[in-house]
Amino acid sequence: MAAPSSTARTRLTKPKKQHQHVQQRTSNKRKRDDVDIETLEAQVSQLDATATHTTFAHLPLSTPTTEGLKAAAFTTLTDIQSKAISLALKGHDILGAAKTGSGKTLAFLLPVLENLYRSQCVGADAGLGAMIIAPTRELAFQIFDVLRKIGKHHQIAAGVVAGGKSLKEERDALARMNIVVCTPGRILQHLSQTAAFSVDNLQMLVLDEADRILDMGFSHDVDAILDYLPPHRQTLLFSATQTKKVGDLARLSLQDPEYVSVHDNSVAATPQKLKQNYIIVPLPQKLDTLWSFITEKSSKHSKILVFLSSTKQVRFVYEAFRHMQPGIPLLHLHGRQKQSVRLDTVDRFRRAKFSCLFATDVVARGVDFPAVDWVVQVDAPEDADTYIHRVGRTARYEREGRAVMFLDPSEEEGMLKRLEAKKVPIEQIKVKEKKQTSIKNQLQGMCFQDPQLKYLGQKAFISYTRSLHVQKDREIYDLQKYDLEGFAASLGLPGTPRIQFHKADNLEAVNKRKNAPRVEALDSEDERESKEKAVRTKYDRMFERKNQDVLAEHYQKIVGDGDDSGDRVDGEEGEEDLFEVRQRIPAGEDANASADEDEDAGDAAEAATNGAKTINIAGASQPLVLDSKRREKLLKSKKKLLRLKDKGSKILFDDDGTAHQIYELEDEAAFRAKGAVAEQRKRYVDAEAARVAEVDLGDKAAAKEKKRARIIKRKERERAEEEEEDGAGVELEGGVDAMANFLADAGPGSTSGDGDESEAKERQRKKAKTEGKGTGKKWFQRDVPAKEEAETGREISTFEDLEMEAARVLG
Predict the structure, then answer these.
(1) What value does the mean pLDDT take over residues 450-472?
(2) Which of 99, 275, 382, 533 has its CA 20 to 30 A from that of 567?
(3) Which of the two residues, 661 and 610, has the higher pLDDT score?
(4) Which residues contact 63 (CB under 8 A, 6 or more apart)?
């Protein structure tokens, strides 16, 4: 490269000065930020946590947070926010309890943003500063949406890790996050498998809906997550039904936590503007009542959230109601759906003005659906806390709402007692009989026409029955008190499905046995060794696969005969089966024929004595005896009459269309009666040899005849060719008459009076054409003698030359 010129060197000095100026401005900006942080630290230290604050302007918040709150239209503090934010800004651990829809999300997001802002936890170099754990994906994405609105002016990086996406994409994003909103299972997977994911600088841990996270299903995950986190951190727990449990405090390693509750024991745990009712509905009438409610004229212009106890019930009710078209948009949501489908359903229900969403408890906690008019609990909740969370989806942020719960008569006393202990005001209402609509017949018709819907209904029945069986509160849910046969009929099922329950007394024992290592479940050391030695390849697994449609093994267990060792769905032992066997018919046509023959013989004998009426049927050797109504019905069925007719013998057609009997093996006794095996073999070989010799003679004669016919045909062809050569040997000679005759025959107006002469000329033309192919001449050329060619002085090569020569000859 050439050396830079002087002008280039002078230009290089200008950016250097500008860069120094930028660095000076950056340092001045950092000084101003440091002054702002110091001011915030002083204001937070002087903040009175016991004072009551009404607006966000009374709190020492940073400028980016203030701008975010203003853009999101947050101005007034709720009760839980007024008490919790002040304590959290000072660094206290908090146990927060407040009613649903009271603003708990903002109560922990603001302290997270402010504490990370004051500690300058910004950028990828700072690492992860805060972890927010939610029990469901829907709640995690909702928290992230609120965080994005109020923190859009901050330089802090945040994201969601809730599963449903590629693990590699989440790993790459985790390395750049300062705040992560996650679910317990997915974040535990990253903590144990992602090597670049470091939580050493974690400052804050937030658990939203802490009571749900600390349930049996999540407690082990939380224990494992806490083992990875640093012990010196700030922990915030929020829920609508939070309690001060010593075990929970020890598990989460809280340091002198502050218990924040905005309602005492004398105040209801549900919103004041929420109108709560329940109706007594027997289990077989629940779907009828739900359909009548949804199709009500006023309900079609409402936003309804319907809770069911299991995923299979949600799917069945959604598919059945969707086919019957109630006149309101229907949606369904459960935990077995993909993440994209769940998020799309949540977004559609939020934006909808009128809609009905069938869902499980996956959206019962924390999820904010705006303007929900009705919360319908078709299946009663497992406890009072779950009831509070369910009805909390309506009447949020001082809005009005209504909730109704369907209770079986056996559930009324126990559930009302639990709700009364939680200070939940609820009143009973009744359903108007004239507005009650039954859909039992419609469901039966749909299940009859669609086997998949019937199969889904059977699984819905089983899942609901199991949910009752595993309930911990046996005082409310006693399986023996439910009309399960009527419930199966209300689903449109032809019979009550069978199910074998676990013998465990409680759900904890069932899960413990299910999650136990496989080796511990083996009975003996010999069995363990046999299991270790038995290596199953992919081909073994391939051949072990079974059909997964409605005729699979699972379906056979639901409706098949099976053995009687499994418990009935109602738990009673020794009870007779739904279908009782009255008569067993042997399998196969021979068995049917023999049974019919015996029956006909008996009927004929009895008819001879009793004088019963007999009818002769065409094609049947035995007459039909009409001695009962059952026998008379045979005359109306063509299929049954065919069994009474004499059976013919089957025939087969070969490739030539010839019919012959089916080849059958000879009986062994008949075969041995014909003689010794060697003698029969010799007779068979001799007979086949004679047959082959006879056929061979015929084949030779036919071949000889074909050969003689070919020779005769060849000789006739040669004789015809010789005659053609003799008739076509005439050459054109110079002369007026010969050329005139030629031109007359070749002219366009010429006619032939003699057929033989015309045929001879045609053969001559063809022969000339054939010979011309070998000599390179055209079919209309002729052989001109050398003498004549010398006289004319020219060669005749084309038809025009021939015409000119003819004109010369004619003068």
Answers:
(1) 93
(2) 382
(3) 661
(4) 36, 153
Residue 792: Cβ within 10 Å count: 16
Instruction: Kindly tell me the burial class for residue 116, based on how many C-beta atoms sit within 10 Å of its own C-beta (0-12, 13-18, 19 or more).
Output: buried
Instruction: Give pLDDT tens digits for 113-170.
Output: 999 999 998 887 889 999 999 988 999 999 999 999 999 999 999 999 988 778 888 8
CA distance 470 to 499: 14
CA terminus-to-terminus distance, the chain: 99
- Digit-coded pLDDT (tens) for 85-124: 999 999 999 988 877 778 889 999 999 999 999 999 888 7
In whole angstroms, give the CA distance from residue 326 to residue 324: 6
The phi and psi torsions of 97 (rounded to 5 degrees) equal -130, 130
Same fold flag, 24-261 and 274-481: yes
What count of Cα atoms within 13 Å lies in the side-chain half-sphere of residue 687? Answer: 6
Q: Higher confidence at residue 621 or residue 194?
A: 194
| pLDDT score for 1 | 45
What SS3 state is found at 265?
coil
The pairing of beta strand 659-661 with beta strand 651-653: antiparallel
Pinpoint the alpha helices (H) of 398-482.
412-421, 440-449, 451-469
Strand pairing class (179-182; 130-133) = parallel
Contact criterion met (CB below 8 Å) for 334 and 314: yes
Render 415-436 in DSSP notation, one character per residue: HHHHHHHTT---EE----GGG-
- What's the chain's Rg over C-alpha atoms? 49
Query: What Å distances lie between residue 775 and 217, 691, 763, 778, 800, CA to CA?
Result: 103, 58, 19, 9, 20
CATH of domain 274-481: 3.40.50.300
Question: Is the C-alpha dihedral spanning 714, 718, 720, 724 positive or negative?
Answer: positive
| Phi–psi pair at 659, nearest 5 degrees | -85, 140
Greater confidence, 543 or 695?
695
Two structure tokens written together for 17? 């000065």
Q: Where do we find the tokens 């010196």?
A: 232
**CA–CA distance, 100 with 368 (Å, rounded to integer):** 10
> Which residues is 403 bridged to in the sheet?
276, 375
The pair of three-digit structure tokens given for residue 773, joined into one six-digit string: 């192919």
Phi and psi dihedrals of 809, rounded to 5?
-65, -35
Q: Among 200-214, 282-296, 566-580, whose mean pLDDT is lowest?
A: 566-580
How does pLDDT run across 748-757, given as a tens digit for each residue? Answer: 444 444 455 5
| Interatomic CA distance for residues 565 and 351, integer angstroms | 51
**Record: fold of 24-261:** Rossmann fold (3.40.50)
Q: Please, is 37 exposed, middle or buried when counting C-beta atoms within 10 Å of its C-beta (0-12, 13-18, 19+)? A: middle
3-class SS of residue 649? coil
Q: How many residues does the chain have?
A: 811
Give the phi and the psi of residue 643 in degrees, each rounded to 5: -70, -25
Cβ partners under 8 Å of residue 136, min gap 6: 183, 362, 363, 365, 366, 367
**From CA 379, how far away is CA 377, in angstroms rounded?**
5
- pLDDT confidence of residue 758: 56
Q: Report the alpha-carbon distance of residue 274 to residue 676 in Å, rounded.
A: 101
What are the b/e assignments for 644-672, b being 16+ CB within 10 Å? beeeeeeeeeeeeeeeeeeeeeeeeeeee
Q: One-letter amino acid identity for 672? A: R
Tell me how far the alpha carbon of residue 645 is from its chain's centroid: 51
Quick one: three-class SS letters along 763-786? HHHHHHHHHHHHHCCCCCCCCCCH
Tokens 């008739």, residue? Answer: 727
Helix locations, 46-103, DSSP H: 63-71, 79-89
Helices (H), 151-215: 167-174, 184-193, 210-213
Give me the residue spans of the domains in the chain.
24-261, 274-481, 736-747+755-809
Query: In this structure, what DSSP letter does residue 506 have?
Result: S
Dihedral sign, Cα of residue 466, residue 472, residue 476, residue 479: positive
Coil, strand or helix at 542: helix
